[in-house]
Description:
Layout: E1 4-9, H1 16-22, E2 31-32, E3 35-36, H2 37-47, E4 51-57, E5 68-70, H3 76-87, E6 92-97, H4 105-118, E7 122-128, H5 129-135, E8 144-146, E9 149-153, E10 156-160, H6 161-166, H7 168-176, H8 181-188, H9 190-200, H10 209-220, E11 224-228, H11 241-247
Parallel strand pairs: 1-4, 1-6, 4-5, 7-11
Antiparallel strand pairs: 2-3, 6-10, 7-9, 7-10, 8-9
Helix pairs in contact: 8-9
Amino acid sequence: MNPIPAIVLAGGKSSPEMIAATGVSNRALTIIDGEPMVTHIINALSGSEFVDNIVVVGDNIPVTDNILRHPDQGGLVDNIFAGMDVLNVVDRVLVSTSDIPFIRPEMITDFIEAGLKLNADLIYPIVPVGKCTDRFPGIHRTSVALREGRFTGGNMMLLNASFFRSKRDIITAAYAARKSPIRLASMMGMDIILRLLAAMTLFPSALSLNHLERTASRMLDGNAKSYISPWPEIATDIDKPEDIMALKTFQINPQ
């Protein structure tokens, strides 16, 4: 298999509370285990046999000579488009946030390999939320109950670049709603809202992963798939002062 290019999203400004907790205005530069978070991401991507050509989109980001860098364009979707333009990608591209510092090469390889087998326009990793709380106690994750279990979303996407370019508006709206299950469901229709409300109260079996995938595919007029990843690291972003405090209470060791 030919390696695919990767975009690391490292733009944006931290909240005043996060700046007070970390001492930096860009969350990507938060120091974890002696290195900026974004450096951990770059190292993991560079170590994966399935990744080649990496561009980091953000300002004042330290990179080595073999990593491309592009200025922050002011928003997530704009930054993805900028990254795709720099890489001149027309086929598959991996997109990652810069705030999952515990990710490792084998986890990225696993996601890409599984995602390519799904052969969809958009592949999104999800993780059983219990794995996250077991691995990273004290770091809260937004989650939703489905027939298959309770899951939280990951911080990577495997995209068909041509498809993404054609769906800019709807993907922008969907990403903005990613941490609000009700808001995201409202974009998918009343049926999903009712099923989600039922799943959040008395009937977790009311909403299935397959139903969500079919609804998302219909909304996007494409093929959207999820991948249940065994790795909580792919879904554990450090983006709140409480997360920084939680990291001080336990030792992170590769498992």
